[in-house]
Amino acid sequence: MIITDRNGANQKVHWQAHQSTNAEMPENTLAAMRYAWELGGIPELDIRQTADGVIIGMHDATPKRTTNAPESEQDRLISECTFAQVQEWDAGIKFSEQYRGEKVPALAHILTELAQYPERELYLDFKKVDLEKMASLIKEYGVGRQIIFCHSNHENCKTVKRLAPEVRTMQWISDKEVDFKFQETLATGFDSLDIVQFHLVDAPTKEEWRYRLQRDFLREGLKHLNEAGLELEVLPFHFDQDSMFELLDMGIRRFAVDEPKVFVETIHRYFNDKQNG
């Protein structure tokens, strides 16, 4: 997403359409992927594998929360279901009647579309798949430079970088673990990483600063990553104009958000305000 500032310079803001709590679209569907792309963002696909080895988009270990799977299958593990069984479920109707008929997509289906648009990108959030199979599929479709693989386990990121060096990797770190996990990652020189993501959760009481993770830690993390030539991404589970403007003022230019349309509107307001002084 590129916005021109008042000096005529292009300002690039990258954003991920977070799926598991997406407020605007039925998560992990082709409709959600297209929605994010059309808004100028990068969709995220949570990936799992079926019993017959097909990698699909599904956050949870079972279909109960997001599909209309019959009661007998609602608590069944995805890893125990065949892809044909998964395709019998509707992945859109629980979100809205408007999306009736949306299916749980195979990764191959998403990559087919991605390959047609070299300017588009896709996050793959590891849940439970064979990483060698995933890497082979990415190579088959020739989309490695368009993929960002993400997981909390640094070792999985290292594995993917070895299997598919052109794929960018991102380690996400929850705010409860960030103190020690970031230091561990920093000590490796950010081995095999391109991006590190911090989760921003609201503080229990309203204060001047909205989040539990403090400003100074964010600034320090951003400094370390900039010096290493890497990027910091933040996932604010909730934001308003003031909190988002402050994150942008810090120099953060990569985000993950649950409300893509609201985020884009906020970003435009930010740069319009800058242009108008």
TrEMBL record:
Annotated GO biological process: lipid metabolic process
Location of the GP-PDE domain: 13-267
InterPro entries linked: GP_PDE_dom (IPR030395)
Pfam family, one: GDPD
GO molecular-function term, one example from the UniProt record: phosphoric diester hydrolase activity
Protein name per the record: GP-PDE domain-containing protein
Organism: Paenibacillus solanacearum
Lineage: Bacteria, Bacillati, Bacillota, Bacilli, Bacillales
